[in-house]
Amino acid sequence: MKFFTRRKQVDSARKNTKSLLAKELNIFHLIGIGVGSTIGAGVYVLVGTVAREHSGPALAISFLIAGLAAGLSGFCYAELACRCPSAGSAYHYSYICLGEGVAWLIGWALVLEYTIGSAAVARGVTPNLAPIFGGLDNLPFFLSRQHIPGIDIIVDPFAAILVLLVTGLLCLGIKESTVVQGIVTSVNVCALLFVVVAGGYIGFKSGWAGYELPTGYFPFGVDGMLAGSATVFFAYVGFDAVSSTAEEVRNPQRDLPLGIGASLFLCCGIYMLVSIVVVGLVPYYAIDPDTPISSAFAVHGMQWAAYIINAGACTALISALMGGILPQPRILMAMARDGLLPPFFCDINKHTLVPVKGTIVTGLAAAVLAFSMEVSELAGMVSVGTLLAFTMVALSVLILRYIPPNKIPVIEDVNEDESVSTSEDTKPLDVTQDFPIDHPLISSHPVIGKYVNEGNRRRLVGRTIALICLGAFVLTFAASCLSFLSYVHFALCGVGGILLVFGFVFLSCVDQDEARHDFGYSGGFICPFVPLLPITCILINSYLLINLGLETWLRVSIWLVTGLVIYVFYGRTHSSLKDAIYLPASQVDQTYETPRNYLA
């Protein structure tokens, strides 16, 4: 099983590798991608459902808590995107920090996420266009869905055409498609700002009837408000599309963290403002769950506002569709570069400098699904890929900080005068003798220092990180499963909590590895509050994964098992690391770098 854990070399400025993709994106392009991919049409419906069933007038607080939880993953993405600015996003980070097997499963799960997500978004355009034309029956023929009696399915030709149009746009070039997405996103944001401004005016004029209720601000209690946060958390999914374009950013160390952070901040602010207005105009129990925003305006005599709101919802779907198709060809390209997929997917067009073949395959697959299937029932499968990616990214941050990979795969043959050996003249550099270390790796904590030394440090820290993952799973599983007997329930929660607390305390007492400073590109964003922040991120994502439901997990399991079979029979044998040998990083540096790099 060694092939399952082999890891590729981290990106480094010392490798001097030139990207084949066009470096055209700046901070404003990234914000457009992030906001456009995140704010879909769901917000136009989600506010009504969550307010009625979970949060009540406290809907804005639910969005705030969910935004803070998504921000934890955003911090982790920001650091890894700066250190490893190559295409592939979570797949790329997992390959470097966790190994080939985990990376393959993450990449394979993301392929499912983006394909089904794009198809589901495309099929949502027609229902949102219907109110503009006066209902589904009044839609023009080329916009309406058609029923095929022979095979009893409802096809959506307009959804398929829309997917193909977006695919063609993405093939023109990253800058061209990003500019168009920015324009479409701006229209969507303007529609939401109209809701905030016009709704705020009506609210101040009418006295905010939705907040003057005898049930108070938390009609479902704090538990209901937190349950609402878990539901609206998925409204923030999409910012990870920013990290997938890392290889096409002009200044990734500066722009990627700003793009991720600004996208989440803007989305959270817009969500909260819209929530404050909607639940203030109409009591939460009277909100229409299907058309919450337009119906709230209709109550106050502004039926015409529905046209603006539905136009905003359509632009939101188109922007989200572009954000859904954009990352997948880059993930396929990264997997093909590593030999896990056929080289067909890593072919870069010489004129547009984008993976055109991978984009076309992605678009065709999404178009077929959008045309022929009602994919809303499979929407839960989209969340699995996202949450798995978020969890692996947080785990990668812990590994990077405490036990960064210290062996580099060497694949190419070297000349005799540059051969790497383990003789005395090329032995690894002994930094403990040649350079002073102001911050030793082993903590001076009186208790930890007795049991942790240079010989067992990496092994103990690795096992501690594994215990943290186990503790998060046990705790969230026990907390979510109400069928256990009370003493079993509390016992499992106690075991999971103890493992988490032990892991957090141990990692807090052991100093982070000094090699992290030279891991990948330096000078970018550094994730704060490690290990607390990544551990909290792992815990939150584990809870959401556990609560996706058995039916969703059965469907995803079939997809993952299929991917595992493909990996065993193709990816494993064609991997670029198949014949690699691993040498200590210091030994490779000493062999291939000039001596001046070691002079202080």
TrEMBL record:
Gene3D superfamilies: Amino acid/polyamine transporter I. The keyword Transport applies. GO terms for cellular component: membrane. Residues 525-575 form the Cationic amino acid transporter C-terminal domain. Keywords: Membrane, Transmembrane, Transmembrane helix, Transport. Its main location: membrane. GO terms for molecular function: amino acid transmembrane transporter activity. It is a multi-pass membrane protein. It comes from the Eukaryota. The chain crosses the membrane at residues 25-47, 59-78, 90-111, 153-172, 179-204, 216-239, 260-284, 304-326, 354-372, 378-400, 460-478, 484-507, 519-546, 552-570. It holds the Pfam family AA_permease_2. It is found in: Membrane. InterPro entries: AA/rel_permease1 (IPR002293), CAT_C (IPR029485). Belongs to the amino acid-polyamine-organocation (APC) superfamily. Cationic amino acid transporter (CAT) (TC 2.A.3.3) family. This is Cationic amino acid transporter C-terminal domain-containing protein. It comes from Vicia faba (Broad bean).
